[in-house]
Amino acid sequence: MFDKILIANRGEIACRVIKSARKMGIKTVAIYSDADKQALHVQMADEAIHIGPPPANQSYIVIDKVMDAIRESGAQAVHPGYGFLSENAKFAEALAAEGIAFVGPPVGAIESMGDKITSKKIAQEANVSTVPGYMGLIEDADDAVKISNEVGYPVMIKASAGGGGKGMRIAWNDQEAREGFQSSKNEAANSFGDDRIFIEKFVTQPRHIEIQVLCDAHGNGIYLGERECSIQRRNQKVVEEAPSPFLDEATRKAMGEQSVALAKAVGYASAGTVEFIVDGDKNFYFLEMNTRLQVEHPVTELITGVDLVEQMIRVANGEPLSITQEDVKLQGWAIENRLYAEDPYRNFLPSIGRLTRYRPPAETKAYAPGTQPGDAGDEVVRNDTGVYEGGEISMYYDPMIAKLCTWAPTRDAAIEAMRVALDSFEVEGIGHNLPFLSAVMDHPIFIKGDMTTAFIEEQYPDGFEGVTLPDVELKRVAAAAAAMHRVAEIRRTRVSGRMDNHERRVGKKWVVSLQGQDFAVKVKADREGSTIKFEDGSKLRVASDWTPGDQLAKVDVGGRLVMKVGKVSGGFRLRTRGADLKVHVRTPRQAELAQLMPEKVAPDTSKLLLCPMPGLIVKVDVEVGDEVQEGQALCSVEAMKMENILRAEKTTVVTKINAAAGDSLAVDDVIMEFE
Pick from 365, 400, 93: which is nearest to 238 by CA? Predict the structure, then answer.
């Protein structure tokens, strides 16, 4: 076995590889850019080597710099993680030339299947059903428009190299094809150093289901079930689960056997993923093969008990697989939610900054990759992350900062475990998508398991505007807030140094105001908790060990309720199940007077184009004096490896432009002004 492995990656996947290597007794080497000097993967590794400036195209994807680090460290093998150089055949060749083991498939398999154009041609030759499209290289935007018309709109414009949603655009007309081609080309060049683009038919209302395969160099190959990855935004997966609630055993077996056959046809040896789109009749079509470890691999590990990273290392060391297809048993249900540094209230635009608070829910200590989840109890919580409290989220890399996973014997139980885990996850200092993830876990379509890749687009067409809790949940939160307020009031009566003859008394009657509703309640407390009586005569029993100052409240109020707690004047800021609530607890007289207070009106920004995220201006498409139409492109902003086109919301005239290509802007900086 190898003595030392270098991890040619960063963030959570580098940390994940370190954990398995450490379990196997293998020393690890991290590489890092200037932006990652204090990163968690650098702290976890046995040694770390600096490789360059923050931009990935000057550090993490520069083969010569990574090779220099390998030589300096004396590492015998390299694990590439995902993204960056993980599917780069030239990198694998460079390693082979120096006798360094690549913890991944052979060069030939990378070239055959890692390139989307080539892999589709091979699949077609092997009589695998594929999506119609143009597999040749596309020269320019005019060529892209012509091909798009031949294939028929809508089309998917995709980067030939890489993945993770980078370099992908859906075009419904000529203008979008032209713009999408250029943006995809730019993103592909920046993310993968390869700007080749191809076009295929976009199949509407599909499911995205993928098969995990594992092969060795001795001709053995198995599949480890499927992953449902249909909940995506901008072609980037957000929620994954295993198994899929849609597949039956016959379809699973057919997809699995076809995936293994395809892998064996190209001499594949390592962990890999064959992706399919599946229609409502369970017809499946080969999409692509990812010749690397997938981001969402933890859900497969949770339902099979197989440590995929360990298996990859053993295969790279020349060992045959120790498990057969008959050994693979799918147990229970696993769900993964990706925590992104993106502001859901700003249409999921990237957010950067320092993590002033980062407290994930406690992981189940009895569980580790390679063990059967059921041995840990009825629920498992796992959080794969690459950040820590006080660390900084950089604008240079992918916005994903953690992968929160839960496992339980049934799908319903796994979803409920995820709801509690999301509510328990404390993140402050940046915009993040925790509220949105909570909303998805409660969405009827997700609960039913009837989602397609259009789920987010269809269910949140105007973006995410927060969650409105149903009345039943609202009463539970109101009851909890009343009990918590009473505890805080008692604390305040015990503060020393009070003025003489001024005694603070804790009343029993309160009015709890939240989400536009007022609940008049009466609080009756005892040693075990409080009974909250509402005006309609209904009662709720509240029990909790919460004390003032705690930022997380775990409350029993007609069931388990977890809330993140902040302080506002006269009450709390409570966040639970995707809702962000300002809760005021007042005496009846205070509540009466509060009704007379005027509401604060937000300033008018309708004549300004504000920068929606911290980022770099790539280009400005208009000039002062131009008349612009609704939907017209105004400028492009790049942040976290994604290029975003900002468009006019109405027909107007540009009166002032405050930024130019190359400028770095902060959130809400004024880019241009209108008439």
Answer: 400
For 228, list phi and psi in degrees, rounded to 5. Answer: -90, 120
Cα–Cα distance, 418 to 405 (Å, whole number): 7
The tokens describing 537, both together, are 């005569």
461-496 exposure pattern, b = at least 16 Cβ within 10 A, e = fewer? eeebeebebeeebbbbbbbbbbbbbbebbeeeeeee
The DSSP line for 60-74 is TT-HHHHHHHHHHHT
Q: Tell me the per-residue pLDDT of 31-43, one tens digit each, with 9 for 90 and over.
A: 999 999 999 999 9
How much of the chain is in helix, strand and coil states, percent to nearest 5? 30, 30, 40
pLDDT in tens, 473-487: 999 999 999 999 999
Tokens of 630: 């609704």
Helix (H) or strand (E) holding 524: strand 517-526
Q: Which DSSP symbol is given to 337?
A: E
Residue 591 buriedness (CB in 10 A; 0-12 / 13-18 / 19+): middle
Distance, first Cα to last Cα, the chain: 69
pLDDT at 506: 75
In order of 399, 403, 432, 581, 599, the CA distances from 12 in angstroms are 11, 8, 17, 31, 44
pLDDT tier, 498 (very low <50, low <70, confident <90, very high otherwise): low
Catalytic residues: 288
The answer to whether 97 and 89 are in contact (CB under 8 A) is: no
User: Which 3 state secondary structure label does DSSP give 223?
Assistant: strand
3-state secondary structure of 317: coil
Parallel/antiparallel/unpaired status of strands 221-233 and 207-215: antiparallel
pTM: 0.83
